Amino acid sequence: MKLEVENISVCTQKIHIIREISFELSKGSVLGLIGPNGSGKSTLMKALIGVLPKTGRSNLLVMKHKNPKDDAHLTFGFVPEEPILYDYMTVYGNFLVTSISKGLKDSCQEIENIIQLLRLGNLASRKARSLSQGEKKRVSIGLALLGNPDVLLLDEPHNGLDVDGILILKSIIEIRAKDHIIVLCSHYFSEIEAHCTHILALARGKIMLKDSKKVILEQYKSIEELFTYMILNPTHETNLTV
Fold first, then answer.
1. Is the pTM of this model over 0.85?
2. Environment class of residue 181 by beta-carbon count within 10 Å: exposed (0-12), middle (13-18) or buried (19+)?
3. Which class does domain 2-81+149-232 fall in?
4. pLDDT attached to residue 234
């Protein structure tokens, strides 16, 4: 299993938001996506899942159903920075509708397992609009896990979570990192260092640096130091290979 991203660009009104982003990740890889605000991190994720028009290609499957014999295209789950839920529906209803939209069958047991994993049992019958921001984020994470997708895309998943939620998320990342692919966008550099096998740094919509975490930490004391160096040296560009 391999995620392939080739020359992804997003352009609006002749202005490139991101330009020619390419990388490959194999099963068991966790990519840390870092960069200052406005660098194109969220845009890249939305382009990969087909929400934004783009040029270039990736092998993420943006259709509902995957042919079991089609190993080239990978399914995905996406956690946006701001949770997107059906506010008028219950938490359980959100899971049911999402499972249908993903083309899943007989998903009731999986839904129950995910609700238990994220400790949402006491919230299952509540309307989504009544939830706190942290509770909505937990639901959003659970929806992304439905169908056991090949690739998990996490856009600032820690935002809004309490300590218990962060610990649950950490456990999910650690377990799924063993045999899935994860792309983690976060300003929590301690989490990037703890979980990621590779780092991709963006600035002004372009790749400034990409390599294994091991190689990067031989050059910088920490991911935070790398980020600070990027901010203080915006013209610096190193393009290594993931």
1. yes
2. buried
3. alpha beta
4. 58
